[in-house]
Structure formats: C-alpha cells, structure tokens
TrEMBL record:
UniProt name for this protein: Oxidoreductase molybdopterin-binding domain-containing protein
SUPFAM superfamilies: Oxidoreductase molybdopterin-binding domain
Protein source organism: Silvibacterium bohemicum
Classification lineage: Bacteria, Pseudomonadati, Acidobacteriota, Terriglobia, Terriglobales
Molecular function, one GO term: oxidoreductase activity
All residue ranges annotated as the Oxidoreductase molybdopterin-binding domain in the record: 176-313
Length: 324
C-alpha cells in the first residue's frame, strides 16, 4: 500500500520526508496558511468523498504531531485485562445498533455525500426493548436490567431508557454515517493503559479506526476554518473536535493534536468483541493521552469546530485538557 502522509508516524519519518515536511510547513507559514496541497489520496475505496482534496496534513504533522512525537506505551495482547472495569453511565442507552448513526458536523461540501442530511438532529435512535423500564410483576418495583457489582461505581452503572434532548429546534446539516461507513476506514488494534482520574488503571485491548482517518475521509470545511487561522495555525483542520452521546447528556472536546494522534481511536471492539452498551456501543473514543473522562462512550455526534467545545467534567470543575 502506498504511503500517504497519514501513514507517517512520529519517530518513523525518514529523513527525506522529514525535510519535505519541514519545507511544507515553512511553505504553509510563508503562504499565510493558504498554501494548499492537492491531495490525491485514494486509500479508502467506496467512501463518497469527492472533495477530499486539500487537507493540509503535511503541515499538520510538521507542526503538531511532529513536535508532539510522544506515544503511549503499547503492550502485548496477553497483558490486557479479560474483563475491563466499567465506570460512568452518563448518556448511555442500549441502542439498536442498526438504528445507530454517527452524526458528523462541519465537513466540507456535506451535500455532496450520499450520507447527507439537511437536519441530522432529526435522527431517531432506537433502543432495545429489553432496556425500557421493566417492572417486576410480583412486586411492581422497577428492575435494574444491567448491574455491575464489580464496577468502580458498583450498581451505579445501569442502563436507563434514553431520553432525547428537548428540541428548541435548530436544524443542523451534516452527515449520518453508518457503522459500515466507519468500518471502511483502516482497522487498527491497540493495547494501551487506560487511566481514570479516580486512580485506577487497566491495560485494554481495543480495535477500531483512527480518528484522523475519519478526518481525512470526511474533510473539514476549510473556508470557515481558515478564516480563524493566523499563520500560526494549519489551514483546513479544526482546532477542536466535539463529541456527544445521542441524548446529549455526556459531551467532551479534544484538541486537534490529540485528534490527529495515531493512538486516538474511534473504537468499536474491546478484546476483539463488539463493545457492549456499558462500554459505549457501538463506538467510543479511546486515547491513551487523556484520562478516562475524555474517552466518551457511545458517540452520537462528532463536530469539527474552532471553538472550544463544552465538556461535561470540565463543567464539574475538572481540568479541561485532562491530559496524562
Ligand atoms: N457516555 C459516557 N462516556 C464516558 C463516561 C460517562 O459517564 N458517559 N465516563 C467516562 C469515565 S470517567 C471513564 S473512567 C470511562 C470508563 O470507561 P469504561 O466504562 O469503558 O471503563 O468512560 C468515560 N466515558
Ligand atoms: Mo474516569
């Protein structure tokens, strides 16, 4: 497979490439961020991304990843825990996976994709009937359908019926991607240490796709992005990526450097098995560069943005960046 700029990882950049990346970075700076590299990237087949042209990833790598060449340690698969601890159930529901869509906001030329929707907020996520509030016929007491005695938070982790957000309706155009769309991106596996701010950590075996491959397949809207960029910044890439659960109850934001990092995944498997609802089915964020609070489970919406997104635990007083 041909190497694309996205395949280049910090630490394995050959000297010649490194020089051309630096030149590219300098060209971007000289051109006031307007320097654009025509990307003939065609690694992903079958994705309807006719405008995947500009993507200034060379400069992104030169300025961001390049400098931030840190990688979290990776482990042998045998070191991974067999049963990963569960913690935090805000915004989680037992979704019908076939009814799930990834809402993607901020792509360039959204209407050019088959996955285009004039208003992604109208998407209805179905939940499995088994998780609807069920009542013990004998006692009339509501049954907890999923409880995890051995969890960090014990029985606090439960599946609740999903309540969709109240709509003071503002329509948002964007894409509605299926799991099949996500799985067309290159599959990657990673065994890394997961750390929770509460003090526990476990080694976990994840599979999924790189977030930066999603960005490459569905490039951000460059005009609006580049307006806000001084020569300091990379044209064509948003400063932040915002994530929300389908019901909007849990939400996080991460910076561009983290979004582009090769160990930042949209994970759909844990120990080689599809994620369970309590671990964030069907798709969650995994990044060993951040504490667990940022690793949002059950993603419903991803938004490319230059404005720092809302963040659930930051609003509760925690550090926004939650970096390790
Ligand atoms: N939707 C959602 N994602 C979430 C949380 C949550 O409450 N809701 N909690 C976070 C916290 S604090 C941690 S430690 C991890 C735990 O992930 P796990 O349950 O798969 O171990 O999920 C993170 N992602
Ligand atoms: Mo956590």
């Amino acid at each position: 497979m041909d190497k694309t700029p996205l395949d280049i990882e910090p630490g394995e950049i050959p000297r010649r490439t490194r020089r051309s990346l630096l030149i590219a970075g300098a060209a971007a700076a000289i051109g006031g961020g307007l320097w654009k590299w025509l990307n003939s990237w065609s690694r992903i087949d079958g994705l309807n991304a006719p405008f995947r042209k500009v993507l200034d990833f060379n400069a992104a790598i030169a300025r961001g990843l390049f400098r931030e060449g840190t990688r979290a340690p990776e482990y042998e698969r045998s070191k991974a825990v067999r049963s990963f601890r569960r913690n935090g159930d805000i915004g989680l529901a037992d979704l019908k996976i076939e009814d799930w869509r990834l809402q993607l906001v901020g792509v360039e030329h959204p209407a050019s994709y088959v996955q285009y929707s004039k208003d992604i907020t109208l998407w209805m996520y179905g939940t499995n009937p088994s998780t609807a509030e069920s009542v013990d016929t004998g006692t009339g007491v509501p049954k907890k359908l999923v409880t995890h005695e051995d969890d960090a938070k014990g029985a606090d982790v439960t599946m609740k019926p999903m309540e969709m957000p109240e709509k003071a309706h503002r329509s948002i155009p964007g894409l509605l991607l299926t799991m099949a769309d996500v799985k067309k991106l290159p599959h990657v596996e990673m065994v890394t240490e997961f750390k929770c701010i509460e003090g526990w950590s476990e080694i976990v075996y994840w599979s999924g796709v790189r977030l930066r491959d999603l960005l490459a397949a569905f490039p951000p809207h460059i005009e609006s992005a580049s307006q806000l960029y001084s020569t300091e910044f990379v044209a064509g890439l948003p400063e932040y990526i915002a994530f929300e659960t389908p019901d909007g109850q849990y939400y996080v934001g991460i910076e561009r450097q983290v979004a582009l990092h090769p160990q930042t995944l949209l994970a759909y498997e844990l120990n080689g098995q599809a994620l369970t609802p309590d671990h964030g089915a069907p798709l969650r964020l995994v990044t060993p560069l951040k504490y667990g609070v940022k690793q949002i489970k059950q993603i419903g919406r991803i938004t490319y943005t230059n404005t720092r997104p809302r963040d659930y635990w930051h609003e509760q007083g925690y550090d926004y960046y939650a970096g390790l």
